[in-house]
């Protein structure tokens, strides 16, 4: 009886602590103590303009039935409709109510196979080519009035023209329920007046009316090419953002020397899966920046603990989610500190690990039932990576075997209460800066993770700080060797065949994160595993092909964070002035490779042993002595 009373008392205290923490952090002024990023302050909104020029694509029976409905509905009758017959359905055409034909016969129309069609663009600016012919120009242009694009696309086909999981704004695909009602309407035009049996179709058709006018949205994602690991010196490296985008809004654009990443802001939905996938922080979300969310998490956990709450759960969910549809039991919801997101894929392993290091007992990600398959797969990959990193430190579960990271799908039926999980550490109260006796491990200082406002760490450094802190909480000694990580994870080392390496430093030049570094005083190559994102640029750029990527994760901070010497050589002095200008291995390799070159025969071979200044001087002296030598240059 006493135990039950204590549990009820703690439940009430947890519920009260949760309410106080949420009110203190989320109910405060929206202004953050973090300074606005420069890119946010000057970011212009993305604007769409749509006049309602709507193209219907599909079989003729469906097109004429839908156009008949749209012309009859008060909300959509003002749309400018065009028809593109892309599929043949003779049986439906035979049963087509002739009233649909009469209503739609004056509309511009064209027929083409889907294989000949090429669609691109977005709301207010769709370009559709049929065998190279611009259909907007062919169907809508009259006299001096030239029309190049459609504003809206209604795709009624079995195979959509746009295959993206998140299609561009203004492109609406008809689902099976809509198509079923449309087929009924095609054979019975009287349903237009009655509206019976086609309520879903009417709602879907009415959506087009709401897409006429001018619309603004934020530019969700910024790109910092200075730290992007996609390309360098003509080689392609990291492509994680390209494969993670459900909207097909990210492109690799060829440049004069290097390819670079670009994001089409008109196609971007702000799902931010690319931001989670980017290992260097080159992609950053602007609404809001991740630093503000991490500060919010830290303060939530601090306020919750300060109010007497225990075993806090950090729960990620959609802004529109409600506790009534949560799959968690009421007892567990009382301990949930919620982080509401516009898109659930905007979070990932680095943020979940930070939450655990800041004092969360568990991290729960509530997945909406309508989550696109690509985003679901992305979050599962992030979960596997997060668990692999935690398992390397024996922190993936508590002593009872309960997981610290849980992905759970929305359900109308609450699950049974979860087993209470013991915390890894206790969140700091505001102003605390040291550990206290008798408590689990604590962060060292209030700003240990986010740093000072004028010196915020980058994404990788922030993650390294979290991993360093978690390593101190491990109950057992950490493994001496690297552990396996999921395929494509941005963790690992490199192997260099020392005998074949000439220390040319080509790998250092292309490394986007400074994981590879040279010695300023002597020829040497060093490697810092904690900075390596396994982009592969060093492997591709090595002229001797002696570099190999070795994926894995080293849990010990001293192994991951300390530079490791891979090769060192003696400097080679210029035979003319004595200035060291390269490694002995590099000069030896040059002599071997150029031994048969006509320009480096006889005394010319000595120039390979000269620094660049002395080499030029020697060439000019030779020209002065022998003018005909210019013909050989």
From TrEMBL:
Keywords: 4Fe-4S, Iron, Iron-sulfur, Metal-binding. InterPro entries: 4Fe4S_Fe-S-bd (IPR017896), 4Fe4S_Fe_S_CS (IPR017900), Fe-S_Ferredoxin (IPR050572). It comes from the Bacteria. Pfam families: Fer4_7, Fer4_9. Gene3D superfamilies: 3.30.70.20. The keyword DNA-binding does not apply. Residues 259-288, 492-521, 523-552 form the 4Fe-4S ferredoxin-type domain. This is 4Fe-4S dicluster domain-containing protein.
